Amino acid sequence: MDKNRRNFLKVAGISTLAGLGGTAVVDRLVAGSSLAHASAAAGPKVDQTEGSKGHGEQKSLSGNRYGMVIDIKKFQQDPSLGEKIVSACHSTHNVPQFPEKKDEIKWIWMTHFENAFPQNSNLYRDAANQKHQLPILCNHCDQPPCVRACPTKATFKNKDGIIMMDYHRCIGCRFCMAACPYGSRSFNWRDPEKFVQNANHVYPRRMRGVVEKCNFCDERVGEGKQPACVEACGESKAIVFGNLNDPNSEIRKMLNENHTIQRNPALGTLPSVFYIV
Ligand code: SF4
Ligand code: SF4
Ligand code: SF4
Fold this sequence. Notes:
- By secondary structure, the protein is α+β, with helices and mostly antiparallel strands.
- Helix 1 packs across helix 2.
- It starts with a helix and ends with a strand.
- It contains eleven helices and ten strands.
- The strands form four sheets. The protein has a four-stranded mixed β-sheet. Strands 2-3 form a two-stranded antiparallel ribbon. A two-stranded antiparallel ribbon has the order 4-5.
- The radius of gyration is 19 Å and the shape is globular.
- It folds into two domains: 1-42, no CATH class; 46-276, Alpha-Beta Plaits (2-Layer Sandwich), CATH 3.30.70.
- Bound molecules: iron/sulfur cluster (3 copies).
- One iron/sulfur cluster is lined by residues 149-150, 152, 154-155, 170-176, 211.
């Protein structure tokens, strides 16, 4: 083992990786570490306060913390909303449609209540929850284990509290996928290029070997627009998006007026996605 490689393993505290993933993984991490160093100056700003605060008024660099409220009952009343939001998100973000399930890439998808909330489910679920599905996506956790697991800072919390991906920094180690308790991340096992339908040329496409996930439509929010999935819900208010740190925002009003739950809050990840049940 050469000196660079030994030093990297020591610093990253991941010497057991050689046993887990073999030398190829270790070699990629060493390369990734150099890459991260080389591009650190030009790279994304990481909120260094992440990991140091509890729940409540979390202050990001901008003072914003974006979040989402999803009204499960609205999706039960209009089951067509599910297809609309998935299609809006995936077409906006060039999410590839692979023919085989094992290769599937998902940013937002529909699932049954017991899959999203195993802790809140029971044998005698109400008929609507047995029949209908609800959307799940990245929770943009305020204490994101995926960010802590990433050795290259390819995934990071941005100034608005959104958990982002820098595809050029991603070395495909999938530590973030192992660390995410919600299965919110997908890996490109195959080259996605040929499987993107009606490409959106203003949004970047990915390559084989990188991880991707929902970005809370950071590119749209930056332009003052609503996320594509929110827009696809029309006037229904099935999904409301906004700044959790603004006490006068619509999302805070929704949280104030409705009983909401989060996915597995006991894990301490502090999800920014709330569900009206
Ligand atoms: S849901 Fe998973 S991928 Fe998203 S921020 Fe939380 S831990 Fe990370
Ligand atoms: S696969 Fe995940 S943990 Fe590994 S570099 Fe990419 S974003 Fe980071
Ligand atoms: S917020 Fe944007 S990226 Fe996330 S699921 Fe909705 S449309 Fe997709």
